[in-house]
Amino acid sequence: MRAHKRVRESKGAEIMKYILMMSCPKTGYDTFGTWPKKDIQAHIAFMQNLNKALRQSGELVSAEGLADPKQAKLVRAGKDGTPVTDGVFPEAKEYLAGYWIVDVETPEQAYAIAARASAAPGPGGASANIPIEVRQVMSGPPEEFL
């Protein structure tokens, strides 16, 4: 993971972290591999350029793509504390494909970044219109629980 380097200054506004989660349908990982190579390359280049721009603006904290869900395991603590795994869940309709954590001054900035990511090119260069879930990252539990 890259260290976060703040390039911009806050001007007194509170900086908020948001996670932008990109999900894909259950068939998405298999479908992506069937795209023409030039379309896959364009999609990857778009994401790399988006990350570079966010890094340069000081808004990017972290961004990662995730491995194929076929490699996922659900882990729980067994009675003796050892990990008990269960794995891949075919009933799931969508999987988390990747995420960004951004540091911004307003929710609207996070929404604008999510819209940019959503517009990544798909087959034939058309916007893939990928749904991106945006949620604020909490710095701690809500005051009412302390």
Global structural class: alpha+beta
Q: What is the mean pLDDT?
A: 86
Estimate nothing, just give the exact number of structural domains: 1
The total of beta strands comes to 6
| CATH architecture type | 2-Layer Sandwich
Percent of residues in beta strands:
25-35%
Shape: flat
CATH superfamily: Dimeric alpha+beta barrel
Q: CATH class, please? A: Alpha Beta
Structural descriptors:
Alpha-Beta Plaits; four-stranded antiparallel sheet; two-stranded antiparallel ribbon; flat; disordered N terminus
Summary of the model, kept short:
The chain has 146 residues and is α+β, with helices and mostly antiparallel strands. It is built from three helices and six strands. Strand 3 and strand 4 form a beta hairpin.
Protein described:
With 146 residues, the protein is α+β, with helices and mostly antiparallel strands. The protein has one domain: Dimeric alpha+beta barrel (Alpha-Beta Plaits). Helix content is 26%, strand content 29%. It is built from 3 helices and 6 strands, in the order E-H-H-E-E-E-E-H-E. It has helices at residues 28-32, 37-57, 107-118, and strands spanning 16-25, 60-65, 73-77, 83-87, 94-104, 132-136. The strands form 2 sheets. It has a 4-stranded antiparallel beta sheet. The chain has a two-stranded antiparallel sheet with strand order 3-4. Strand 3 (73-77) and strand 4 (83-87) form a beta hairpin. The chain is flat. The two termini are 32 Å apart. Residues 1-11 have low confidence and may be disordered.
